[in-house]
Amino acid sequence: MDSIRSQFAEQYLAMTTAKSLDGLIEVQKRYQGQPAFNTLAVSSDGRAWFGDTSATPNLSPEAKAVLEAVADGFDTCEAVSVKLGLETAEVEAELARLEVAGYLACSLLGQYIRTGLGTTG
Prior knowledge:
The structure is a single chain. By secondary structure, this protein is mainly alpha-helical. The protein has two domains: 2-51, no CATH class; 61-114, Winged helix-like DNA-binding domain superfamily/Winged helix DNA-binding domain (Arc Repressor Mutant, subunit A, Orthogonal Bundle). The protein is built from five helices and four strands. The strands form two sheets. The chain has a two-stranded antiparallel ribbon. Strands 3-4 form a two-stranded antiparallel sheet. Helix 3 packs across helix 5 (88-100) and helix 4 crosses helix 5.
């Protein structure tokens, strides 16, 4: 528990000293120590960033494979199914779990994208 508290404190210190939006995003990626908070930031040039980078449990190998496929551009259930050689129903269930957990967002057209939520393990 002390290491979690330490990482949490280190992340907040690094966040408050980030010099740019890109620097803040790198801090979020590096630490991933927030227990359950979202971050919203805007740069001086008008870019906005929302990160749900809360600490999360380890993912199953199947979930990691689906998540990696989406990150690689296979953004529909069918595309992920073909890429991984899995049944559509299996992929649909995994995509739904990942979306509910905050790892993915789905458009009205059924296209998935990765969120800012990091993975552990």
